[in-house]
Amino acid sequence: xxxxxxxxxxxxxxxxxxxxxxxxxxxxxxxxxxxxxxxxxxxxxxxxxxxxxxxxxxxxxxxxxxxxxxxxxxxxxxxxxxxxxxxxxxxxxxxxxxxxxxxxxxxxxxxxxxxxxxxxxxxxxxxxxxxxxxxxxxxxxxxxxxxxxxxxxxxxxxxxxxxxxxxxxxxxxxxxxxxxxxxxxxxxxxxxxxxxxxxxxxxxxxxxxxxxxxxxxxxxxxxxxxxxxxxxxxxxxxxxxxxxxxxxxxxxxxxxxxxxxxxxxxxxxxxxxxxxxxxxxxxxxxxxxxxxxxxxxxxxxxxxxxxxxxxxxxxxxxxxxxxxxxxxxxxxxxxxxxxxxxxxxxxxxxxxxxxxxxxxxxxxxxxxxxxxxxxxxxxxxxxxxxxxxxxxxxxxxxxxxxxxxxxxxxxxxxxxxxxxxxxxxxxxxxxxxxxxxxxxxxxxxxxxxxxxxxxxxxxxxxxxxxxxxxxxxxxxxxxxx
Length: 481
What we know:
Elements: E1 6-12, H1 17-31, E2 33-39, H2 50-56, E3 65-68, E4 87-89, H3 97-104, E5 117-122, H4 130-143, E6 147-151, H5 161-170, E7 175-178, H6 182-191, E8 195-199, H7 204-207, E9 213-216, H8 227-236, E10 241-243, H9 254-267, E11 272-276, H10 278-281, H11 288-302, E12 306-309, H12 319-336, H13 360-369, E13 376-380, E14 383-388, E15 391-395, H14 398-408, H15 415-434, H16 460-477
Parallel strand pairs: 1-2, 1-3, 3-4, 5-6, 5-12, 6-7, 7-8, 8-9, 9-10, 10-11, 11-12
Antiparallel strand pairs: 13-14, 14-15
Helix pairs in contact: 1-3, 5-6, 11-12
């Protein structure tokens, strides 16, 4: 049976035409599709709207699918009146078309499922006000925590533990209590705490009276001392439990502690297990996202269905959100037997945004095509590039670049435009230092930490471009004398 090759019609604006054709020339043979390019009468593709595209669209015969610019605003349904073909938004940056087509071949329709529970600990809860506890608990839950763990202070009994538990339950949150003190635990479970961290030989005698699930831990983790006796007693008394062999920090038995989790899983193949991953993320000088992902990947493969984390130290203050993203990614990888790659970009923060390169030929063509007075900023190949009508300046040093710009266009740089360029060039320098992708008028991609650009209304450049295009359209619509 002959399989017909897909024929995709790409819609773009005048400035992006050259770059788009260069990308498609290389991409189409690799992916296996034919293509046509429709260049509409607008300079900047970002200013298109789907109703405007519908009025201008001409679809070549044989087209099987239409892709419009990713930043074209408006509903795609606006195109249904002029074509019955499927219409998609492409990536906002056409240089990401290779990634876009790589994603299309993968079934991500059910992505986001998970089976690992996140317990988020509020450290030293007895030292906090009720308001502070509630505020932090709600924040942790919003980031993905399934259960709020109230961490108590050893050597004392928190008289307000019951009130704190009830307050969180009234807010719709699940609560666990982290204490070895039986009287403190009893007050918490009477108020509604559903899990106790932790139980060993020192307090196992009281566990049967609590009427809730507990976490069994060894008396001495390195030797697993007391753990199996504690498990046996809990089992005999009908107490539900999870097993946590205790993760140790690097330099204090980290590798051996991972081995203990494997040993426990082999001994108790059906038992619920938990891992306190904060022992690594909080106690290691490294950004926490990678640490959390690796440990949750380990848990996913071993069948450890709950993790306890904290986010106290400054480099781990987004741990709950990272764990929430990581559990979906690892679940997808394990259940679909596929690599956890090109699936969850939000976990890549420092190096987010693969740098895309236009090249000198495209930038030169762009400088010849530009008709408006605005400057485009690019960061690639170790330099910052300023491109305008008949202008292409480049330098690694932003000060040298601005001096060259002043020399080339001394009368065209207003105070507000200089401020804008300084802001954009600062982002471009950051992108070069970190190997990130820079896109003018867009925030740098920091994964799940990305924030929208702060400002009022359209950006300086796009507002000016819109004004120039409006003037161009008015001139085109005015009849010649």
